[in-house]
Amino acid sequence: MSPAPDDHPLLAVRGLAKRYGAQAGCLDVGFDLWPGEVLGIVGESGSGKTTVLDCLSGRVTADGGRVAYAKADGSAVDVLRLDEAARRRLLRTEWGVVHQHAREGLRMGVSAGANVGERLMALGARHYGRVRGRALDWLARVEIDESRIDDLPETFSGGMQQRLQIARNLVTEPRLVLMDEPTGGLDVSVQARLLDLLRGLVEDLGLSAVIVTHDLAVARLLAHRLLVMRGGEVVESGLTDQVLDDPQHPYAQFLVSSVLQP
Amino acid sequence: MSRAALEVRALAKTFTLHVQGGVELRVLTGVSLTVEPGECVILADPSGAGKSTLLRSIYGNYLVRDGQVLIRHRDRVVDMVGAPPRLVLDVRRHTLGYVSQFLRVIPRVPTEQVVAGTLRAQGVEPVAALRRARAVLARLGIPERLWTLSPVTFSGGEQQRVNVARVFVADYPIVLLDEPTASLDAASRLAVVELIREARRRGAAVLGIVHDAQVRAEVATRVRTLAGTEAA
Fold first, then answer.
1. Is B85–A193 a contact, with Cβ atoms under 8 angstroms apart?
2. Is the Cβ–Cβ distance between A44 and A214 less than 8 Å?
3. What is the value of pTM for the model shown?
4. Which chain B residues contact residue A254 at CB under 8 A?
């Protein structure tokens, strides 16, 4: 619940860089993420915030930098230098990735229960009844009625698909979750429900998360710390409420003053 | 800071408004004060003098570059100025409570859970946290039928009492109060006064902004201005 102030960071990112041709995706991005901490990355479209997340998850290949991750077994790895098999294994076990569009993170051709059970089976769970039991348990936690377990995600609303994607990722109790606009495109009431759910899961499971969002109100409610990005660079970082209530950098001030009551 | 729970030394705060042509607003200069355990120090400057800015600067909500904010935290002294965010959060979680004038919560979370959340973050187990949350809500006169509702739709006075509850539910060694009774009726005001006095009796150091003369007289052990002038 309350991490001691002097253990080690879970993730230490240094000099992360990615170019798309002449265009900078992100430049020299660095931060530490501590156990139990939620880091928000905010900025407008094109600021590079999603590029950072994509470099971490390996969805795009970074041009440079280091991403030191402290594994559950105590060893440290540079995530950018893992081979493909090791990276995929990490993403299936200790990490989870929640995409902005739930369809990208779900398998649309199999049932809700299979979507949640898949990660467990990938980790070696074989007992059908137990996998189904865990899947049911997680559907309940994300407030999806158990009668829907055999339905295809296609038949779910956008908000339900997003919650299913979260269940699919969290069923294996990852230590780190990367989320790209997890509440984007949802109705306000559904957003609130999802925020409540995410906050509860972060507290109960003690997981760490990096959340990319353009919504400063979402960032305020979920993140302990914020990075403000612009043009691929981090222009400001600090405690969430300090960055939002007393931003220092001209662009951060502009961003905060441009929205209604963040 | 021999006995002090909170000591502010030569604190200055200037806002640079880049969006408005780089205007510089110098709000605080050379503020120094100490609050000892069991004391309730009330700031008596007029509106606009920077009292709320001082509380926010102490809490780390505003970024301070000049001066020191020394907090007795877990048997050591922490300077909040320049402290890493994680340490500031740890101080806020366990040592420094702050009743602000704004209630910001995740929609849909029941009031009793919002209040219990303070204790949960301190490691108190859920059932005990909820029991204490309900007790403080009852003391503050929030009707039981509202406990399971989100405070988002509450009246101003009810939200203010939820803000008071989520701080006084815990035994913070240091409490900052920004007008905790401003929009309350007499009965609620009395309940808040009692909570402040109890906190003092158990040794909490309280620093607050209270304009209401009667409330001030009932809770203050010392009244002073930002500049350091002691009042009667």
1. no
2. yes
3. 0.92
4. 18-19
